[in-house]
Each structure stands twice: as structure tokens, then as C-alpha cells.
Amino acid sequence: MKKTTNKPKFSPVAKYSKAHERYLKRLRNDKIFVILFQILILVLGIGLWELLAYTKVIDAFFVSSPSRIFNMFVSLVENGSIFKHIGITLLETIIGFVVATLGGTFFAIILWWNKRLRRILEPYIVVLNSLPKIALGPIIILWVGSGMGAIIVMCVLICIVLTTITMLNAFNSCDADKIQLMKSMHANKFQIFWKLILPSATDEFISVLKINVGMSCNQPALSLRRKFQVLSLQKVRSCLVNT
Amino acid sequence: MGKMLSFDNVNFFYQTKKEEIQALKDLTFDVDENEFASIVGPSGCGKTTILSLIAGLLEASSGEILLSGTPIKDSDDRIGYMFQRDHLFEWRTIWQNVTLSLEIKKQPNADQIREQAKELLKKYDLYDFISAKPRELSGGMRQRVALIRTLVMQPKLLLLDEPFSALDFQTRLKVCDDVYDIIKSENKTAILVTHDISEALSMSDKVVVLSSRPASVKHIQMLKFNGETPLSRREDPSFGKIFDLIWKQLTNEKDNKQT
Ligand SMILES: Nc1ncnc2c1ncn2[C@@H]1O[C@H](COP(=O)(O)OP(=O)(O)OP(=O)(O)O)[C@@H](O)[C@H]1O
Ligand SMILES: [Mg+2]
Predict the structure, then answer these.
(1) Quick check: pTM over 0.80?
(2) How far is A185 from chain B (nearest CA, A)?
(3) What distances in angstroms separate CA A87 from CA A31, A80, A82, A146, one per listed residue?
(4) Is B154 within 8 Å of chain A by CB?
(5) Residues B16-64 pLDDT 10s
(6) What spatial distance separates the first Cα and last Cα of chain A, rounded to whole Å?
């Protein structure tokens, strides 16, 4: 009796799931391995930086050192100003990111829609793309001042051209036969765009989002470092004055 | 039986920067209502061009194309176009793919069409995959989904451009049978483009043989095989003879080209 009730346990499904389990385990192990190594590289990198600064191989006045940054961080947390800085940086990042992503995608849509406009503007877009936008920094500071505005404009400038180009490429790489299919269903241009072109560019849009997050963090982060440096210079100065 | 489609001395030229390419030359043929017509011809002769003209994606350079007696441009009869590849949208579920045309053109009897689509999906073992994404389906299943998507448009005329060529032989025979069954039971008129003579013979009532580019009609073969399905029609004693005849028409063409 017992034997017969036990039997279903040894069904092919169980065998399959064991192999599947092994597969999942391998996946998990693989993931753990990758993460461990990533952490290791981080720790080694920071350790090396600290070591070089400590042994004065590199000048910590210019390149700072992990312990200095940590001390600065602690003191900023103590006087509470870190939260203001982080808030501003975050705001700059988010505004820059949103404006650049939406603006770039919007331009790409306009250029996809109007082929002639695309051909007219093509050389200018190429030039804009190859221009090192950092070089525009001084001009922007002259125009909009050196505050938050400049950082956001900079951030948008850097991201928007790339976003436009990437999204336009994505729109144009849509399978021509799929467009024919939509046309054979009597879809209008808006429907072709909304139901085919835009969704087929989802992957590119996501990668643009990732790139833009990175790049728009970059700009304000630069400014954040500047604030740190100003603070540390003040500190240095006060030290010098005291002695 | 009325005429569904007629081509009268149709010419078509593709315009390119370098030259003008004539794809169709004085093309004349017609297709009756509820008829299953096949078009065979050498590769690159202009078969897809013919279907694109019928679907209104291209416009004839000269000549007249009538759909149920009215010029294609003014006709509001629906035409379902099935391409060589299934072109299912990967980001949509099977159901969303099948009902795509209902989103594009609002239909008064949309609910009824949805019911019909569900019936078709059930009949061809696709109903369980209704909320799956296309990548989870096999090639044959995808092609059947593409056909049902085309049928949801409620077309009077179906255009099939080598719809089976991406399938392996076994699947191909099965899908052929299914497609034939759907088209016959729904009383559709269909035009099938294929390079496979036996496929053309097994499925159609009429085969139009084209010359190489610029395509013109070389021969029209009416067929009357015994058999309910494409597979059984292949068993007909006269199948081989007619195959040879059409084969000669096509290869003869190639010989002419070489000399
Ligand atoms: N957009 C185009 N511009 C210029 N020439 C074209 C264009 N499309 C097709 N052609 C030419 O017209 C001819 C007919 O093309 P078509 O696609 O109708 O041939 P086909 O019979 O469907 O070929 P296949 O058997 O390879 O599918 C070909 O020689 C091709 O080179
Ligand atoms: Mg073709």
C-alpha cells in the first residue's frame, strides 16, 4: 500500500525539476561570484588610493584620499549641510535627466516625422554631437551664471544630442515590412508611430535612460566635488591661519 | 461567380536614382470570387510588386486594377496582406497581435469579430497561448497567428506572399492544410505567391505563371484536382502531369534567358 502511494514522487517531473534546480544553483553561484569580484575590485581600488595618498606617492591635496573624503563626509553630516548638498545635487540631476531625455526623444520624434527636416539638420546634429560640450562651460556660465542653472544646462546639453541621435536611429531601424503591414491595415502615420515605431524602440530607450542617468549624475557630481574642494580649501586656510 | 480582382494591361516601374526598373509589363489576369489563385514565377520577377499594388501600397504606372469592379484607390473593400515573415509584434501578446487591426480601424461589430478570432485560436490550438508573447511560439504557430491576425481585418481578398517559406517541410504541409481549411471555410478569395509549384498546385483553383522581370502572364492553368485538403490533392493522378507542364513553362523561361 505504502509503496504505491509513494510512487508518484518519482515522476519525470521530479527528475526534470532536479536538473532545473542544478541549473538555477549554477546561475546563483555565478551571480555570487560576479558580485564578490566586483566588491573585491572596489576594495582594492580604494585601498590602493589610500595607500598611495598615505605614502605621499600622489598628492592628496589635489586628488584627495578615501580617509579625507570620509572625514569630510562625517563633518558634513555632523553640521547637517550634507543633506542640503545632496538635495541640490539630486534636484539638478533629476531636472537635467528629465529635460534631456524628454527633449531628446521629442526632437527624435520630430525628425522621424519630417524626413526633409532630418536631412536639413543632419550635419548640424553631427557637429553638435562631436563638439566637446565641456568646452561650452565658460560660455554657459556667462549666459546663465554659475549656479544651479549652469549645471542643469550643461547636463541637458551633454545628454540631449546623444538621446536625439540614439532615438532617431532606433526609430529608423524599424523593419520596413512591419510598416508595410501597418499600412496594409490602413494605419495612419500617428498609429504607425504609436503602435509600432515607439514600442519597437523600447530597448534603445531603456539604454538611453541608463546612459542619461549616468551622465546627468556626472555633471552635478562635479559641482558637488567642487563644493567639497572649496570647503576643504577653507579648512586648509583656517589651519594655516591658526598656525 | 463575379470577378473579385482584375488586372488590365498593368505596367509598373520602380524609380531609382540610377534608372527606371520595369517590374510589370502589360500584366493581365483576373481572379474570381471565392477562387484560390496562385502566382508562380522566377525569383525577382515582380510577384511581391503585384501584391503591393493590390494592397494599395504602390500605384500602377499605367493600366487598370479593379477590385469588385471599382478601381483599387476608390474601393473600400478590405484586403488582408500576409507577409513572408509573420511580423508579429514581440512586445504584444498573441491576443493583442491578433486584434491589432481592430485598434487601428474601429469596427461596428468588433465584439463579434473578437468572438470569431477566439474560435479560430481555439480551433488551431493557440487559445492557451493567448496571453503569451510571440517568442514563446514555434514558427508554425506564429504563422497561424499571423493568418488569424489577417482574417480579423475581415478581408474580402487575402494576399499571401510566400507565407510558408520560413517553415520546415513537415510544418509547412500542416500549416498549408490549416490555411487552406481556414480560407475555404471562411469563403475567402485568396492569392498565394509561392516558388513551390507543388504547393501552388495543391492549394489553388488557378495558377498564374509569370515570365521573368518584367513580369507578364505566361500561362494560366485552371486546376480541378480531387481531394478535400492540399495533402490529398497531391494524390490526384494528374498532379504530376500538370506539375511537369508548369515546370516546363518556368524552366523554359530560364533557358531563354541563358541563350
Ligand atoms: N523598392 C524598389 N526599388 C527598386 N527596385 C525594386 C524595388 N523593389 C523591388 N524592385 C525590383 O523589382 C523587381 C521585382 O521585385 P519583387 O519584389 O516584386 O520580386 P519577387 O518576384 O517578389 O521576388 P522574390 O521571388 O525574390 O520574392 C526585382 O527585380 C527588384 O529588384
Ligand atoms: Mg517577393
Answers:
(1) no
(2) 6
(3) 34, 12, 8, 18
(4) no
(5) 888 888 889 999 999 998 899 999 988 888 899 999 999 888 888 888 8
(6) 93
C-alpha cell of A237?
586656510
CB B83 within 8 A of CB B163: yes
* A210 CB-contact burial (10 Å; exposed 0-12 / middle 13-18 / buried 19+): exposed
- Contact of B193 with B44, CB cutoff 8 Å: no
- DSSP-assigned letters across all residues of A184-223: HTT--HHHHIIIIIHHHTHHHHHHHHHHHHHHHHHHHHHH
Ligand 1 pocket test target in B49, B51, B57, B160 with most atoms within 8 Å of CB: B49
Q: Are B180 and B204 in contact (CB under 8 A)?
A: no
B5 neighbors B66 (Cβ within 8 angstroms): yes
What pLDDT is stored for residue A218 in this prediction?
A: 67
**Domains of chain B in sequence order:** 1-77+191-259 (3.40.50.300)
Q: Which three cell numbers stand for residue B68?
A: 469588385
Residues B66 and B12: beta-carbon distance below 8 Å: no
**Of residues A178, A191, A199, nearest to B104 (C-beta):** A191
Whether B73 contacts chain A with CB within 8 A = no
Interface of B with A in 35-64 (CB under 8 A): 52, 55-57
Report yes or no: A175 at the B interface, CB cutoff 8 Å.
yes
C-alpha cell at B85: 515573415
Of B56, B87, B153, the CB nearest to A178: B87
For residue A97, the one-letter residue type is F
The ipTM value here is 0.85
Decide the pairing of beta strands B79-82 and B62-67.
Answer: unpaired
Please indicate whether residue B80, judged by its CB atom, sits closer than 6 Å to ligand 1. Answer: no
Length of chain B: 259
Q: What are the pLDDT digits (tens) for A93-131?
A: 888 889 989 999 999 999 999 999 999 998 998 888 888
Closest ligand 1 atom, residue B46 Cα: 18
pLDDT at A35: 95
Hey, what's the cell of A161? Answer: 544630442
Q: Scanning the structure block, which residue is given the C-alpha cell 600622489?
A: A58
**What span, in angstroms and rounded, lies between the C-alpha atoms of B218 and B213?**
12
